[in-house]
Amino acid sequence: MAILAERPRGFFAVGIEHSKCAVNVGTLWRSASIFGASYIFTVGARFKRQPSDTRESWRHIPAFSYATLQDLVDHMPHDCMLVGIELDPTATPLAAFTHPTRAVYLLGAEDWGLSDEARERCQRLVVLPGEHSMNVSVAGSIVLYDRVANGRS
Question: Which pTM value belongs to this model?
């Protein structure tokens, strides 16, 4: 009789609001697939394809496209926290952040970050080290790695 390995509790998803660069979306989706995301998404996407998603992550995990932030919020899983990744003076540094068991991570556009509406709707904001904006796919990948490395997956 085979013994099934116990699966960690919880789940997570990651996506970008109003991304302008298909390469960044594809790279983030590839990282999400590798790190075990439950699903991936865009909000108000400004692109058509993700050439850098060489794994074709949408073939392995669900990929959703939400027309607006409200559309995302309306369709989030029950009892799930919306966590924004943003340079913001009120944000918790990633090193001090405890990842929720159920989380949807939201990153902003490469040129202006999260919208004001998104910042207000997020239950938590997290900031990465450094004083300047980081590439959105790199920032998202770092957050997902931190989640997995700290025992949440």
Answer: 0.88
